[in-house]
UniProtKB/TrEMBL annotation:
InterPro entries the UniProt entry points to: Cupin_1, Germin, Germin_Mn-BS, RmlC-like_jellyroll, RmlC_Cupin_sf
Residue numbers binding oxalate: N105, H110, E115
Disulfide feature: C31-C46
Superkingdom of origin organism: Eukaryota
Entries under SMART domains matching the protein: Cupin_1 (SM00835)
Name of protein: Germin-like protein
Length: 216
C-alpha cells in the first residue's frame, strides 16, 4: 500500500469509530418510540409508521415554569425521547431550566450530549471544566439572548446571579443525553462508595465524607 492509502485507511478507521460513539444516522424518515415494545435495542423500538400521528411529534408545556423549591433552587424540565416519542433515533432533545434567585444547576455532565443553551430571562454565571490534566475552568456571565455551548461529557454548571427568576432553553445532541450530577454520583451512590475511598480521593477526613454522604 502507498503511504497515501495507509493514511486514508487510518482516517477512515478513526472517523468510523468516532461516528459509532454517537447516535447513528436514521435509516428512515422517523422511528417514533413505542415504549410498549420490550425489544432490547440501542434506543426504543419503532411504532408502526402507518399508526403514527402528529401527537407523536408534539410536546406541550414548555412555557410552564418549573418548581424551583428544592435544595439547589433550580428545575430541569426535560423533553427527551421519554416525553416526546418522535425524538427516537433523531440525536437531539431539549430542556427548559428554571432558576430561583441565586439558584444553582449544580456541576454535572451529560455522557451522551453536547448542550447549547440560550438565556430567555435573567443573568447566569456558567462554566465548564476541561478534562485531565489541565482541568481548565472556562466560565462566563450570560445575559438574556446569549448562547453558550457545553462540550459533550464535560462537567458544567449554571447559577442565577440575579435577584429575579432566570429561564433558559437548551438543546442537547442526544434523544436521551443522561445526566451525572457530581455530588449525587460521588456522595449519594447506592450502595455508598466506602468513605475511606472518598476520604483519600478528596484528601479529607472520613468524618467530612460521612457528613457529605448523609446529605445525598
Ligand atoms: C413545589 O415543590 C415543593 C417541594 O416539593 C412543594 O412543597 C410545593 O407544593 C411545590 N409547588 C407547586 C406549585 O407545585
Amino acid at each position: 500500500m502507498s503511504n497515501k492509502l495507509i493514511l486514508l485507511s487510518i482516517l477512515a478507521l478513526t472517523f468510523g469509530c468516532l461516528a459509532l460513539a454517537y447516535e447513528p444516522a436514521p435509516l428512515q424518515d422517523f422511528c417514533v418510540a413505542d415504549p410498549s415494545n420490550s425489544a432490547k435495542l440501542n434506543g426504543v423500538a419503532c411504532k408502526n409508521p402507518m399508526q403514527v400521528t402528529a401527537e407523536d411529534f408534539l410536546f406541550s408545556g414548555l412555557h410552564l415554569r418549573g418548581n424551583t423549591s428544592n435544595a439547589v433552587g433550580s428545575r430541569v424540565t426535560p423533553v427527551f425521547v421519554a416525553q416526546l416519542p418522535g425524538l427516537n433515533t433523531m440525536g437531539i432533545s431539549m430542556v427548559r431550566i428554571d432558576y430561583a434567585p441565586w439558584g444553582l444547576n449544580p456541576p454535572h455532565t451529560h455522557p451522551r450530549a453536547t448542550e447549547i443553551l440560550t438565556v430567555l430571562e435573567g443573568t447566569l454565571q456558567v462554566g465548564f471544566v476541561t478534562s485531565n490534566p489541565d482541568n481548565r475552568h472556562i466560565s462566563k456571565v450570560l445575559q438574556k439572548g446569549d448562547v453558550f455551548v457545553f462540550p459533550v461529557g464535560l462537567v458544567h454548571y449554571q447559577r442565577n446571579v440575579g435577584n429575579g427568576n432566570a429561564v433558559v432553553i437548551a438543546a442537547l445532541s442526544s434523544q436521551n443525553p443522561g445526566a451525572i450530577t457530581i455530588a449525587n454520583a460521588v456522595f449519594g451512590a447506592n450502595p455508598p462508595i466506602p468513605s475511606d475511598i472518598l476520604a483519600r480521593a478528596f484528601q479529607v477526613d472520613n468524618s467530612l465524607v460521612d457528613q457529605l454522604q448523609a446529605k445525598f
